[in-house]
Design brief:
100 residues, 64% helix, mainly alpha
């Protein structure tokens, strides 16, 4: 009947949460700031919003750097000798190959 409570399997299934896009994340942060702009700067909520904005900035900066490094590495096996590829891989791991 329409007034009966949902079965346990129906109540447990929820739609998957969409993956946020960079634009939607930025819009969310801006909306939070605009909604709470009247908060005093010393309030815990204002501090949490500052932390959120800073974390977003760091995330965006790190993703740009990751994309830049990925582009540099793309096709490196075609451009570099095996010896140079090994040296660079060791350097990324914090090791230094001996000079032969």
């Amino acid at each position: 009947s329409p007034s009966s409570p949902p079965s346990s399997s129906e109540s447990r299934s929820s739609p998957p949460t969409p993956t946020p896009t960079p634009q939607s994340l930025k819009q969310h942060i801006l909306l939070q700031y605009r909604t709470h702009r009247s908060l005093p700067p010393q309030s815990p909520k204002a501090h949490a919003l500052q932390t959120l904005a800073y974390d977003y900035y760091i995330l965006k900066k790190d993703l740009k750097e990751r994309a830049r490094l990925y582009e540099l590495d793309a096709g490196a096996e075609d451009k570099l000798s095996p010896k140079e590829s090994s040296r660079r891989a060791a350097a990324r791991a914090g090791l230094q190959l001996p000079k032969l």
